[in-house]
Each structure stands twice: as C-alpha cells, then as structure tokens.
Amino acid sequence: MPLPAIDFWFDFSSPYSYIANEWVDAVAARHGRTVRRHAILLGVTFQAAELRPPVAFPLKGVYSLRDFARSARFEGLPYLPPADFPIPTQNAARVFWWLQATQGEAAAARWATAGLRGVFAQQLPLHQPAGLASLAIAQGLEPDAVQAVCADPQWKARLKQANDDAIAGGVFGAPFFKLDGEPFWGNDRRAQIERWLAQGPF
Amino acid sequence: MPLPAIDFWFDFSSPYSYIANEWVDAVAARHGRTVRRHAILLGVTFQAAELRPPVAFPLKGVYSLRDFARSARFEGLPYLPPADFPIPTQNAARVFWWLQATQGEAAAARWATAGLRGVFAQQLPLHQPAGLASLAIAQGLEPDAVQAVCADPQWKARLKQANDDAIAGGVFGAPFFKLDGEPFWGNDRRAQIERWLAQGPF
Q1: A163 C-beta neighbours (distance < 10 Å), count
Q2: Whole-structure pTM value
Q3: Measured between CB atoms, which of A48, A66, A188 is closest to B59?
C-alpha cells in the first residue's frame, strides 16, 4: 500500500511557495511519497485568519523582501520577482484546477512549477492575459481554451472550493503542508518535514 | 582582531527565542564569534511594526501553539510553557540590562538563559514577584536588589532605549539576529545563519 501523499498548498504569488515547490517533489520521492498540490488564494486565507501579507507591514516589509531573495539564493534558485508584487493569481489557479481535473496531478504540477518559475524567476506577468497566454503556449495548451477556463463558473467554483477546504483544514498561509495529518507552515519547515518523513512523528 | 559579535534580540515570553537561545552560543563559538544579547519587549516592536503575536490570530494561533512545542522537540528541548502565555516581561528585561551594565555580558546571558528556560521548560511565573525572586535566588542575586532594579527609572529607561534601538535597527520580532549587518528573523533562520558564518555572504 503506498504511503500517504504530502498535501502542499501554494499561491502563484507566494515567493516562499516558489522556493518550496522546487524541493518538495524530490524530498517526497526520497521517502516514497508523492505530492498533491492545492492552488489557493492567499488573500482569501489571510482574510479568514485576519492576516495581511508580510510586505504590508512597516519594518517587516523591508525585511521580507530581503529574505525572499536570500532564501531563494540559499536554495540555489534564481530570483527575479515581478515589479508589482504581489499579483492577483485567481486565473492561474483556476487553470491549475482545470488541468488537475481534466489531465491529472502531473499536468497540474507542471503548470504550478512553470507558473511559479515564471512569476519569480522571469518576471512573467501571470496576472495579465498576455502572461497567461504565454505560459499556456509554453505548456502546449491552447491560449483560448485557457482564457475560457478563467471565465468559466465551474472553475471559479472549483477554486472557491479549494480555498474553503484549505481554511476548513486550518490552512492560513503558503506554502503549507500536511503530512500524515500534521500541519507544517512555511518553506522554513523543510528540516522538520524531512525528519518526519525519515523517522515519523517527533 | 576578533570577528564581530552576533547580535541577538529576544523577549522572555518568546518561545522561539527560548529555542534559539539554546543553540546561538554554540553555533557562534564554532565560527569564532561571540553573542551580544538584547532583551526587548515584543509588544513594543509589534506596535511599531503594526503586528500582533501569532497566537492572536484565528487558524494561525492554533497552529503556532503546536509549532512552538514541535520546534522545541525538534531541537531536543523540554517544553512546558506558562498557562497564561504570553506573559509581561518588562521586569525580567530590566534585570537583564542591569546585569549587563554592572556585571557584564556573561552574567546577563546567564540570566537570559535561566529566565527563558524557567518560562518555557518549568512554567516559572517570571511576571510575578515570586517567580522573579525565585530566579534571582537561583542566580545568586539578592531578591530585594532585583526588585528594586525593576522599579528604578534608570533601568526602565535602559530597557526603553533597547526597544527604541531595536526598532531603529529594523527589529520587529524575536528572535532576531544581526550578523555582519545582515538581519535574520526567526529561530528557523538557523541554517542560513550557519551558512553565513561558514562561507560569508550568499
């Protein structure tokens, strides 16, 4: 019987999600696990938890911008964020859920990775129709079909369901992980996740 | 010429400060560094940064209590926090600065460590006169002298200066570190601090 998957919640506009997305599959695979991704809107979970993005605060905002870049360098990743960070990501997330439902987890994971790399390493304007179309083409998807998905009530509802499920499960930020039911918040919980995978609960 | 010290800001009511306080000296020493501690009041830096404690939020509060305990276990530390967390810590912090000025860094560091361990491993009510007196006796200090320090305008002013200096230097939370001028926030920046100490800027 396969081991339970690691659940991984992310937002296409979350720099720490970009970083975590780069290591989560390899870390999971080393311990016989797979990853089940969940695209959510941080704005919605922040509202439920009465939070604001770290960059919205005096002192913490300046530090956070520095820490995003340093944390990417720490993992050896390129980091070139969008000028108008944070960006709205509901369209990219709706496409994620459409791919997950119609083409499966692997296709959705490829979209997640390409989108996060686009936003944080290539300044891709994923919140604009041109940016979304460019990512669609690079992923072998029909730009018009992707555009239609974004406006389709079915995929709007699917994203809303994902946000609601996340909040009901205690998710308030991203990246957020659940491993055998245990919640881990933040790219910086990697070491704890690795120990849990290797040794079980601690 | 000795290498620059690591500056380390903490609050006696910060669980992640308790954890970081346990590793910071050894990590520093391995790289020929010393640690310069700064007792501050998180309530004051939170106000400057428009922040609230993590336990004050829906969803995040429940997670944080779980993460405090798990992060302590991850480092192999006992964890038995006070029932009425968070506690006011201005008196413990004033005594810290009195010791630092009159007996030096090492005495202040011993007070910091004993206080943090008391609060987070032994449920010591450090915010109450009896708890403070008990810690004073255990540290070979005269309880009446310690009580007098807490009410002395000189040490009130010294703590206020420490809070003001912290905020002026961009400190908004605890534990907070500065290493060669580079700011690191959180117990979970240990890996980045260790790399910086080993290799320099990255």
Answers
A1: 23
A2: 0.96
A3: A48
